[in-house]
Amino acid sequence: MPDLQHQTALDWTDHIHRIRAQDQAAFKEVFAHFAPRVKAFLVKSGADLQMAEECTQEVMATVWTKAGMFDPSRASVSTWIFTIARNRKIDMLRKRRRPEPEDLFWGPEEEPLAEDAVVLQQETKRLAEAIRALPEKQRHLVEKAYFGDLSHTEIAEETGLPLGTIKSRIRLALDRLRHQLK
Amino acid sequence: MTKIKHHLNDALLMAYSAGTLPEAFDLTVAAHLSMCDECRAAAESFDATGGALMDDLDTLDLSDDSFAATLRLIESAPTVSAPRKRTKGVLPAPVQDFIGGDLEAVRWRSIGMGVKQAIIPTAPNATARLLYIPAGCAVPDHGHRGTELTLVLQGAFQDETDRFGPGDIEVANEDLYHTPVADIGEDCICLAATDAPLRFRSLLPRLAQPFLRI
């Protein structure tokens, strides 16, 4: 049985499904939880308060409009919103869309397996706990890589993050998606 | 498609996920991820790392009007743009986005010895180019001041380190001097990104460098 924390992560997945069905109450809860984190991320990576405020609103509006593309077998809601915020930040700096890989998403006919989604959400939770438990020095390096001033040449080729399990789960989800797309 | 043997390293995947790479590198990484599910899964697990870090930040309050302003944005938003169609061409989708089409949209310029290139306009801190190496021909031997990423889109090339086929990406840095030679069977098309000018051994390409922007 998933414990309470895992349940919380799954609840957000359910919120996104409700947002797909235009549920404004669900959106309000997602906004209340995530918007202050998105704003913090943007300020931490160098945006001023005014820019961060506007950018956060755009990110949250994208959560609404793109809810149909969220894939819980490949990302948690936190992960997904992080990618939207990161892309929006880059787009604003470059005034051009960030190059993204070819889109891979489930069509309206088929959905990812519920079991895949549950396992992925649990793995994401475990990863978050592992990151919290990193030695101070290593955690600091990871934060520096994500919030600004570490270039790719300054990042170690082996980051030492425990990504093996979550990576193989995402890989599995991609295989199933590719199979369905054929 | 043959199995991809040469992948991105963690440093590049993490920087791509963090959003700190130069645009030319973003483009090359996105092109490789379009061809390589192994690296795509790795990149998405780095995204999960970013999500976890964002979750743990001290939150910042939004202005009182924020939620209402977001709803107004949603109302005024144009209908959701359709996701890009999957392409069957030689160039991966993110490259086609930049060029405005597949190979037919590329404007090649000769850089000598049969080799052609097309610069892809990106932000100036790094350069991206498509390279066309006729079967059996070589790119003049060169080294690197910074990092050079070379992704094979068609055909294959061989250099001092190994053979690189479709989807393979070579990550070269200061300690590699190499002479990529295209396989004899087919013309080779690559996407290459550099964050510093290349260093050519022989004089002729060195003289041509400023004009070719290599």
Automatic annotation (TrEMBL), chain B:
Sequence ranges assigned to domain ChrR-like cupin in this UniProt record: 102-193
Gene3D superfamilies cross-referenced by the UniProt entry: Anti-sigma factor, zinc-finger domain (1.10.10.1320), Jelly Rolls (2.60.120.10)
Superkingdom of origin organism: Bacteria
InterPro entries cross-referenced by the UniProt entry: Anti-sigma_ChrR (IPR012807), Anti_sigma_zinc_sf (IPR041916), ChrR-like_cupin_dom (IPR025979), RmlC-like_jellyroll (IPR014710), RmlC_Cupin_sf (IPR011051)
Name assigned to this protein: Transcriptional regulator
